[in-house]
Amino acid sequence: MTAQYLSESLNLLSDDLLYETDRARLAPAKKKHSIRNWSALAACLCILAVGAAVVTPHFSPTVPGPNTDNPIISPGEVVPDTPGTTAPEVEVTLRINTLNGVGVADMDLKIKHYDKLPYDVWQMVLAEFHDNTDIPYEDFTTRFPEGWQKTNFYSHMIRGYKDGVRSEEYDTLHDYVFTLENGDGGSATVAICPFETPLRDCFFVSENPKESTINGTPLVIHGDSGLYMTSFFHEGLYYDIELSGISKSELEEFLVALIVTE
Amino acid sequence: MQDHQIVELYWQRDEAAIRETETKYGEYLLHIARNILFDHEDSRESVNDTYLKAWNSMPPYRPDVLRAFLGKITRQLSIDRYRTRTRDKRGGSEYALSLSELEECVSGGDVTGRVVDQFLLAGAIESWLRKQRPDTRQIFLERYYYGDSVAEITARHPFTPSKVKSILHRARLSLREALKQEGFDL
User: Fold this and answer.
1) Which of A40, A63, A127, B110 has most Cβ atoms within 10 angstroms of its Cβ?
2) What is the complex's ipTM, to 2 decimals?
């Protein structure tokens, strides 16, 4: 173990410990070599130790429920090929498939939130995100196009298997999920999974869906009238994305921002 | 402005959040960075990177102690920047001196640095810290977390510089013993 490693681990100490020390650092300097002043300092430190802040999370986000409001799109003609409208160096061909039907699937999972965590645990979450996806959390979130703000971040947890026996606990991470809004009525849910398609509580029925491509990455897009769903595999991650309240050009802009990262 | 109000500005994506953060904590963060980097320009960059990281973290994160949250970001960014500097540019900072002191606690052997192991180590250090007298705990953190000089620490406590050095020396030995008992490979 190196001194550097030891020093860096201090960054994972609880906030209340640092708060106590900070308070003492900000206090006026104490006089020296006076028993009375030393006693006063000890009394102050005791008060600081007793009054040290206890972390009390107060944010209660809206718990996202299963996605039950997907409208069933009436069967219709497949929307003709739409040439990309992005910059010429990006090759985009969008083909929006109209849905013939939507089937409902049962999802056995629990949602794990990340908004009430102490800083050191949050750092652990970020480290695990990097380990699982091979992308730093910050790098991934900067891919969201300008104008879109994250409103929530959580995981889908499932019951994993050990030695062929299914766990009783929802202790295996399946997907990371981001929800975003563009401030203009548009909303997006981006789910990613490193080993298979993210879990979804409904599946789309369409015969021979046409494929879109963005810089060579194939994807299948369903939807119409401002509501779009797509799933694809790109750079080691499976994506499942749902967007609503946006135009086709905004859809293209969103997908290009996620896929074209150079 | 109160911390919770500043955090709310971040959540509302109001750029006033950055201005308010700089007004309230700019000097504090710069002090942390300078203690590690010793160079004003590098320190300024670390602090600016802190604002960006804070902007990208909130939402979804909502820290309860904003000062500690920001301080940790600046500290880590500064340490990362320190690590990439050449050996020649590292010297001179209090952080470099404090690292050389911390070498008393460890063997200096290489470590793969798994994130989970570092969390376990932090937990053990925290457990040890909470058992220490308040002045020992604070002096230890002032020196090895904030990188304050012995002179700065002495100015805040009713001790002589020799006493502060003695407290730090005993703390390092005690920490080393505690980590060995916890089974850490020093």
Assistant:
1) A127
2) 0.86
